[in-house]
Amino acid sequence: MVSTASLSSSILAYEVEHGRSYHAYNAGKYVLPNDEYHALRILFEEKPFYAPIDENPQCILDIGTGTGIWVMDVGDEYPSAKVIGTDLSPIQPQFVPPNVQFEIHDCTEYPWTFPDNSIDLIHTRITNGFAVRDWKAFFQECYKAIKPGGWIESQEFDLMAFSDDKTLPSDCAVVKWCTLMNEGGLKAGFDLRLNSETIRIAMEAAGFKEITVLDLKLPIGLWPADPRLREAGKFGLGAMLQGLQGISLATFTRFLGWQVEEMEVLLAQVRSEWRQRRVHSYWPIFVVYGRKPFSG
Fold it and tell me: Is the pTM of this model over 0.85?
């Protein structure tokens, strides 16, 4: 049985590879650096989640919490709830609202130690491949932990940039980078490609009902005419320009056998394309939420 871990020195340490820090707990298992995205807050119109939970929830769980900002915001909004954020990295603030707590926890190690039928909402955001690698098994574990009448919500994406007006041709550097990231992921044992139907089917197979699917697009860059989407695109572009090396390094060097210098040439081309307003690219974003029935 897996247990949550205290913040021992071994857990507070990080693997350092090519100057980037990675999760030390279960070292080498995940390749996503400790960077964060902010653009989704704008895309979702400041909603932390879409599931219509009760007004006074008692327990909310965030899987792969990252910096913990989501947990702290939800803790402020729902003072009745104990809001727990779990991650492999202890990068969250030490001073938090009294109803918020963070735990070191590998969500792929089953069974969890959370009591059955104890959680009002379990939430994930951008965990596919990097953390959750088997959605069917993951949702089955969530189902056990969620109260009857409680909710599961996953906010995920497909690691393949698209454009609807052919401004992102198939032979461009951005598409090449996405393709190579996915090839490296498969060699490492995880799939970074995803669609909302895969999540919906896995959620339904676990027993969830009242499933709702929202298919959205997160712009990359300042190209959208809509002010809100342009603001989301600005943060989306900033996140990619800043985090591109960290996201790429382990996959390219560990699993694709690239030299750092070779990779940096490609990344420079990717950044150049994304900075061009004529390139109307976006990430497919999926929000899927469902409810555990009260009986059955």
Answer: yes
